[in-house]
Amino acid sequence: MASIPSKSEESATKVPPENVSAQNMEVFISTLPTREGWSQPMVLYKNYWCRPHLVGMIMLLQDTFEPRRDDIILATQPKCGTTWLKALGFAITNRSRHSFRDHPLLASNPQYLVPFIEIPDPGRDHTYLETLSSPRLLSTHLPLSMLPAETSSCGCRIVYLCREPKDAFVSRWHFENKIVKGSNIELDRAFDMFCQGFSPSGPFWNHCLEYWKESLARPNEVLFLKYEELKSHPEEVVRQLAKFLGVPLTEEEESSGVAKEVVKLCSFENLTSLKVNQTGGVYHGNKIYVENSVFFRKGKVGDWANHMSEEMAEKIDRVIQEKLSGSGLAF
Ligand code: PAP
């Protein structure tokens, strides 16, 4: 068993010891910088803020996850369109198997049709991923630097969806106050934390930048998309996604309007009209009950304007511009 670092040895960038036992995990987590402010305290692990219980899961992932060449990983920062991307990815890659009239997306919340690699679905553990037949459609909220190294070398494909930071922030703020009973985080306070880089999976900009740079270096394996372009040209993005995932739309599919059908099936309006997304929910590993409806709120571009002052918008725009400067990425 590996030894646990002492507090004095600890640093925010520290690589965790391998094979830390379950008993020692708590000790290890207690050595990480901790900060409160969101609905639950968070720790800084490998330069990113996350819920403490996630650290063990990420470490387990490093040891157990074996990426396959034909895996597809849908990567997002929370609140940037995960549910939508999962729906689209599932609909595109499974379109020969299911008719649009009798589709799994009509009976299941998209979140549970595409498993997270770092967070086992309720009732399952990490071994579940190994039981899935290829090609696997998987998802993650982790930054690229936290994925097992083979993910970058095995040739699997990653689709990253990011979102305009002001809208992502507003969505996060609503979610935080909804998900934990009694949570009442003030907008101003949440805003300051977000601008400091302190948010779940944050700093927001570093998460985006890692995937952005990788998409420039390995365009055939990493596709970088924005929520806003998906909103404005959904059918084009569906075609782009299908092509990138190695299942381009055929001429026949084009003439029968498959892109349109996929967009309609996965649309905010359709998904929110379904009973499965209006009722029910599941308990997650951290004992939080997540209602299926919580993944849907407004689904709009620009809702930040209903919450932020001009001053706030200018500040966050300045922070983001500065952090992304020189990268070629802009919002
Ligand atoms: P997660 O981080 O918990 O996985 P995620 O799906 O990334 O959730 O974020 C939810 C946001 O996506 C919500 O945005 P809002 O708060 O600004 O409204 C949600 O409404 C939006 N969303 C979910 N499904 C869709 C969809 N089909 N089309 C467009 N937006 C969607």
Provide a descriptive summary of the structure in words.
It is a single chain. Helix content is 41%, strand content 11%. The chain has 331 residues and is of the alpha/beta class. It has one domain: 3-Layer(aba) Sandwich (Rossmann fold), CATH 3.40.50. The strands form three sheets. It has a four-stranded parallel sheet with strand order 5-4-6-7, sandwiched between helices. Helix 3 (82-93) runs antiparallel to helix 12 and helix 10 crosses helix 12 (258-266). It starts with 21 loop residues before the first helix and ends in a 7-residue tail after the last helix. Residues 76, 78-84, 87, 167, 171, 174, 266-268, 271, 295-299, 303 line the site of 3'-phosphate-adenosine-5'-diphosphate (PAP).
Question: In summary, what is this structure?
Answer:
With about 325 residues, the chain is α/β, with parallel strands linked by helices.
Query: Rounded to an integer, what's the Rg over CA atoms?
Result: 20 Å
Profile the largest sheet: 4 strands, parallel
Number of domains: 1
| CATH domain topology | Rossmann fold
**Ligands:** 3'-phosphate-adenosine-5'-diphosphate
Features:
single chain, 331 residues, alpha/beta, Rossmann fold, three-stranded antiparallel β-sheet, 9 strands, binds 3'-phosphate-adenosine-5'-diphosphate
What is the secondary structure topology, with strand pairs?
Blueprint: H1 22-30, E1 34-35, E2 42-45, E3 48-50, H2 52-64, E4 72-76, H3 82-93, H4 128-131, E5 137-140, H5 150-153, E6 157-162, H6 165-179, H7 187-195, H8 204-217, E7 222-226, H9 227-232, H10 234-244, H11 251-255, H12 258-266, H13 268-273, H14 275-278, E8 281-283, E9 289-291, H15 310-324
Parallel strand pairs: 4-5, 4-6, 6-7
Antiparallel strand pairs: 1-2, 2-3, 8-9
Bound molecules: 3'-phosphate-adenosine-5'-diphosphate (PAP).
3'-phosphate-adenosine-5'-diphosphate is lined by residues 76, 78-84, 87, 167, 171, 174, 266-268, 271, 295-299, 303.
